[in-house]
């Protein structure tokens, strides 16, 4: 860590450094990570803008909720079997450290290429770049042996991370606990009993719906704020703390849920476009039955992670919030009315 924090010791990754200006800054996240901007002056007068991110998993609610005791974002960089990630995404990382219960990553400052922090749709072209990068990642690790790595987030963890029981686990620094608790209360006050029963099922039981489906490596937090489109339509991705293994549609379900106001297409069209890109990357089609099952678990995961927020948004009285809520409830209603027999809870 001392070497990483001494820019003069980083010549082998940054070139010859003449000086560094370090500027602390806050982010919009809730993980408790500490960030700095580095303005690096290299020999010859060239400037390099970097970001340093430091995290202690024991003090990060996202790590606690997903069982991260190692610091996944740095461990990903430390795992040779996962180097193929950077054939799907541009790698922004320059250096990393894992030491004494803390991780730190030094990465390019992507600010000029990040999407504006506004709740407005991105362009179709940019959405295609993002979806194709995810599809490329998923195809690269389709049913790969590397998915057995013990530190990857499991479907059960994804289903539970912000689910109805997430505020009952005694985690003392969950920054969103009050709003999540109230959001789920609003959810259950509005839902019919059959959908409420589905969402109340323990995450481990719901995750069995993923059994038998193709598995792959997941980014885990596919919100638009974590991606940047670089010149040449290369996609860079940051915030890999939820890197996991499971059906590819767990990434898609979260993408649809968390980016609701930013989607370039209706949700059904996003799903269809992603499927086409995935099948193209795989070089093979997915049967209608398999795709339907994959999509259902992805949408269920998205609902378990963010339906509380959809219910909270209804209080604004906006038509957009009502439309968003109704869409997700319709998807869950379809699942409880026509469950897949081979994937039903308890084997029914």
Main sheet strand line-up: 1-2-3-5-4
CATH third-tier fold name of the largest domain = Aminoglycoside 3'-phosphotransferase, Chain: A, domain 2
* Computed Rg: 21 Å
* Tally of helical runs: 13
Write the CATH architecture name of the largest domain. Alpha-Beta Complex
- Mean of pLDDT: 92
Quick take:
The protein contains 13 helices and nine strands. The chain has two domains: 105 residues, Phosphorylase Kinase, domain 1 (2-Layer Sandwich); 233 residues, Alpha-Beta Complex (Aminoglycoside 3'-phosphotransferase, Chain: A, domain 2), CATH 3.90.1200. It is α+β, with helices and mostly antiparallel strands.
How would you describe what is shown here?
The protein has 13 helices and nine strands. The strands form three sheets. The protein has a five-stranded antiparallel beta sheet. Strands 6-9 form a two-stranded antiparallel sheet. The termini are far apart. The longest helix is centred in the C-terminal third of the chain and has 26 residues, at 288-313. By secondary structure, it is α+β, with helices and mostly antiparallel strands. Helix 10 runs parallel beside helix 12. It is globular. The protein folds into two domains: 7-111, Phosphorylase Kinase, domain 1, CATH 3.30.200; 115-347, Aminoglycoside 3'-phosphotransferase, Chain: A, domain 2 (Alpha-Beta Complex).
